[in-house]
Design a protein that fits this description.
Strand 13 and strand 14 form a beta hairpin. The protein is 37% helix and 22% strand. The protein has a 5-stranded mixed sheet with strand order 5-6-9-10-12, sandwiched between helices. It has 2 domains: 243 residues, Roll (Ubiquitin Conjugating Enzyme); 32 residues. It is built from 8 helices and 14 strands. By secondary structure, it is of the alpha+beta class. Pfam families: RWD. This is RWD domain-containing protein. InterPro entries: RWD_dom, UBQ-conjugating_enzyme/RWD. It comes from Coptis chinensis.
């Protein structure tokens, strides 16, 4: 893994990210209905063919995160191999490179620590951004769950509570959140972007199935089709932030699943939609952590001294104010 990817540490949030090292581009030869990639060595060819979607079945563990990083980087590598970059003049390459640098600089100024910029072999630029979805009101999350009936015959095989059977009862579980886990957009910029080709990209979402993520990917593709030759990254991110929920038909309620569905087959789409008993606690924890983070960063009025303090220092201020108040009474 470390022989094929570059480790990048952003300046502020000190989190590790990995970006793909782009191999030399080669031609692609269709064979029957499947596309086979021709490469120089057998090991490299096998590596590209073995690229598959990686779901976050391990939950929020370091091993699971590494698997996701590995899967996304491999997928970007695969996508870059399926398209032959056009030969461009040195002047055009210089123009594209400058446009890419300007675009990423602007994105960094707007999105700050949510954006991680990396570099790849061969002069290709890459980045990953966590797109926080705009939610005006509290959202209701619902999921169909199944409970086992008690009259299952003794000695029979155990039945999964997430799959409907003749011995299970279906019920709808709902909970409310103010914040959703972000959409993760990862891009590798070919040297022909933006003059001739769009960025290679993947979209990863924990709480959406692959079909819904594929719908988002199709929308990003349409932006490039409508305005070819123009910078498109900011438009992609802004649309994912402000319009992705309404585009998927979600207003004030999001229904998780359906589960146990076949993968959509979109090479751009990564789904972390695992099981309701995994997704629901994970979404709840993210919402609680985000609410706590916002509370700590915003000003709060002390109910005792009526002065404003940052949330993370409010508890200390309350303790101090209460001590002074009680001390005054004792005197």
């Amino acid at each position: 893994f470390f022989n094929n990817y570059t480790q990048v540490r952003p300046k502020k949030n000190n989190k590790l990210a990995y970006v793909v090292k782009t191999p030399p581009l080669v031609r692609v030869k269709p064979q029957d209905e499947d596309e086979q990639v021709e490469r120089g060595g057998g090991e490299e060819e096998s590596k590209v063919k073995s690229c598959t979607s990686t779901n976050s079945a391990n939950g929020p563990t370091e091993e699971g995160d590494n698997n996701d990083v590995n899967g996304v980087a491999s997928r970007l590598e695969e996508l870059s191999l399926l398209t032959q970059e056009p030969e461009l003049s040195e002047e055009q390459l210089t123009i594209n490179n400058q446009l890419q640098e300007d675009e990423l600089l602007a994105m960094e100024a707007i999105y700050g620590d949510n954006l991680t910029i990396g570099s790849a072999d061969g002069g290709h630029k890459s980045f990953q951004i966590h797109v926080h979805i705009e939610t005006l009101d509290e959202l209701t999350i619902s999921a169909k769950l199944y409970s086992l009936k008690e009259n299952v015959k003794s000695g029979g095989k155990s039945t999964s509570p997430r799959a409907p059977t003749q011995h299970s009862d279906e019920f709808l579980y709902t909970f409310a959140v103010q914040h959703l886990p972000p959409i993760v957009l990862t891009c590798l910029l070919p040297k022909s972007y933006p003059s001739h080709q769009p960025p290679y990209f993947t979209i990863s979402v924990q709480w959406l199935n692959s079909l819904r993520i594929s719908n988002l990917c199709c929308m990003l593709d349409s932006f490039w089709t409508d305005t070819p030759g123009q910078e498109v990254i900011y438009q992609w991110v802004d649309w994912l932030h402000s319009s992705s929920l309404s585009y998927l038909g979600f207003d004030k309620e999001i229904t998780l699943g359906p589960y146990n569905m076949p993968d959509a087959g979109d090479r751009h789409a990564f789904s972390g939609n695992v099981l309701p008993e995994v997704d629901i606690p994970s979404m709840m924890k993210y919402n609680d952590d985000k609410c706590h983070e916002i509370f700590n960063e915003s000003l709060q009025e002390c109910c005792i001294c009526f002065s404003e303090h940052a949330g993370n220092s409010l508890s200390l201020s309350l303790s101090l104010s209460l001590s002074l108040f009680l001390g005054g009474i004792n005197k």
